[in-house]
Amino acid sequence: MSTSTKKKDAGLHNSLVYIVQHWQLYVFFLLPALALTIIFRYIPMGGILIAFEKYNPIRGILGSEWVGFKHFSRFLSSPDFLSYLGNTLKLSVFGMLWGFPVPILLAFLLNRIESKGIKKKIQLCLYMPNFISVIVLCGIVRIFLSVTGPVNLLLGTQINFMTMPEAFRTIYIASGIWQGAGWGSIIYTAALSNASTELKEAAVIDGANIFQQIKAVEWPAIKATVIIQFIMQAGNIMSIGFEKAYALQTDLNMASSEIIATYVYKKGLLDGDYSFSTAVGLFNTVINVILLVAVNKIVAKMNDGQGL
Amino acid sequence: MKKKSRFARYSFQDKALLMVGYILLGLFVVAIVIPMVYIIVASFIDPVTLQNKGITFDFSKWTLTAYERVLSNAQIWIGFKNAVIYSVVFTFVSVLITMLAAYPMSRADFRGRKFFNVIFVITMFFGGGLIPTYLLISNLKLLNSMWAIILPGAFSVWNMIIARTYYQGIPGELREAADVDGANEMVFFFRILLPVCTPIIATLSLWQFVGMWNSYFDAMIYLNDSAKQPLQLVLRSILIQNQPESGMISDMQSTAERAQLAELLKYATIIISSLPLLVMYPFFQKYFDSGVMAGSVKG
Predict the structure, then answer these.
(1) What is the pTM (predicted TM-score) of this model?
(2) Which of B:61-80 have CB within 8 Å of A?
(3) What is the DSSP letter of A252?
(4) Total structural domains in chain B?
(5) In angstroms, what separates the C-alpha of B293 from chain A's closest C-alpha?
(6) Is B34 near chain A, with CB under 8 Å?
(7) Contacting residues for B48 by C-beta, under 8 A, at least 6 apart
(8) ipTM of predicted complex
(9) How far, in Å, CA of B257 to CA of B262, rounded?
(10) Structural domains of chain A, with CATH
């Protein structure tokens, strides 16, 4: 027997001894999570096959007729494709451009409030909208913007904002900032509280102005957090949520409110076109993975090799 | 000597800049508070006045009718009951499974750690999607069962990473001391490890509870039986689809009256449904930072 196989056998033997000795770690601790992951995450991955089939529920996934990339080409060549892709991208890219800086600004401002009591009260207000559900948020938006709602009463107009495709994105993004910016600032506030107070005092004594202080003290304290948050958000650009877009949709604002997620739901579960819907969903997921890897690479290059 | 406040030490330009910042912050707070106050007040206004003039502080126009109608509706209570059951069960199952799995994954000596880590992390980026998952749930005969909305999301990889990071910050002496006593893994975990993890347990519980309480998509696709619907689906028909539960407005004679009343009911429904979380959350505020800190450390 060669030494390498001996080593391998010894390693295998050690592993087996470890597993036998620590069997509880595998059976009691890991198994529940592993079972859920395999059943509810990996088995559906096998179900992706139906995107390449003419799926027939009676014949099942393995018995249905194979059609290759037919559903993909149908989707990619349909006139709606660019519209849905564009709506999805615009909603998340603009949402990020407007929404990403707000929590950071809030954290900088909160960090400079000296009275702990006032700071806490402001934070209590800022976090509150996070605990309102999507349905209630969209309900509030619909009430406030309805023809007889307070916004129209205030303006003395009768504009039906919810039926205007050109208003949808603004409504979606602004309500998102209203709801999420305060909560999003927590992570930066926490990072800022780690900034060395001595450094801060030194900067103040040296006569640094606010911009210089931010550059020297506060930005270094939150830089890593900002980068991680940026990667995570940029990487999730295609996985913009179904729930809110669907709850703000009306028959008349569809031109800008129909995104890939809502289209997948309607095609699949309302129309029963399982194969086509799965193909569209898969297209979305693949683009998302590519984006995530690309963003991570870019940020790693800009950040001296440090990605996620 | 009295310590000069930090604000007084700023230069004139810096003070001006800060004032602009504080005014913006103040406007943001006002933009959050005003709609909330408006909704509270509006929920008490007589429906005709509300539609024509908006809110008023002429108390002769105030009424409790919206609350009476919403609270006497059975479907709202069924929704509440279901939401409580689903959220409590989901939170318990999810946090337990996540905390359990994070323990071996936090130990450097655990054989297979890298392999299992890859298995878990892949699912954060890639999945089967809506229809394959729906077909699976359907094949498992879980349609119209509460487990359809509880089990698929019960194990969160992200939360596992956060819990794992938290465990790794706990001094190793704790374990060594337990080994001397010959405690086995389960005893060590439940008796010694979990009790020192309350901040992270509280944080994850809060996230999971709020997440389940506020979501509607899974319930919408998996639970068709109206007796099983959680609160958010009941709210959806009242607030989004403009379909008040039967009996809420059906005694009104004219269509106009019904429309006005339906609008008023929305305000009361928003208050009633949002109150539980909004009242509870300040008590959890002290855990927000600790949880976020744990999460901000890379796993």
Answers:
(1) 0.90
(2) none
(3) T
(4) 2
(5) 7
(6) no
(7) B260
(8) 0.90
(9) 8
(10) 3-66 (no CATH), 72-302 (1.10.3720.10)
Beta bridge partners of A65: A54
The residues in A 130-169 lying below 8 A from B, measured between CB atoms, are 131-136, 138-140, 142-144, 146, 148, 150, 153-154
Domain limits for position B50: 19-63
Structure token digits, residue B119: 């298995």
What was the pLDDT predicted at A108? 93
At what angle are helices A219-235 and A165-192 packed, to 10 degrees?
140
Does residue B47 carry a pLDDT above 80? Answer: yes
Distances A12 to A15, A24, B108, B275 between C-alpha atoms, Å = 5, 19, 18, 58
Phi, psi of A224 (to 5 degrees): -60, -40
Residue from B56, B94, B131 to probe the interface with A (highest A Cβ count within 10 Å): B131
What is the distance between the alpha carbons of residues A263 and A250, in angstroms, rounded to a whole number? 14
pLDDT in tens, A66-115: 999 999 999 999 989 999 999 999 999 999 999 999 999 999 999 988 88
Asked whether the beta carbons of A104 and A188 are under 8 A apart, the reply is yes
Distances (CA, A) of B64 to A130, B1, B61: 28, 58, 10
Same domain, B229 and B82: yes
Report the C-alpha gap between A286 and A280 in whole angstroms.
10
Residue B269 placed within a domain: yes
The per-residue pLDDT for range B231-272, each reduced to its tens digit, is 999 999 999 998 887 778 878 878 888 888 888 999 999 999
Mean of pLDDT over chain A: 89
- Residues of chain A with C-beta less than 8 angstroms from the C-beta of B221: 265, 269
Q: Does A115 touch chain B (CB under 8 A)?
A: no
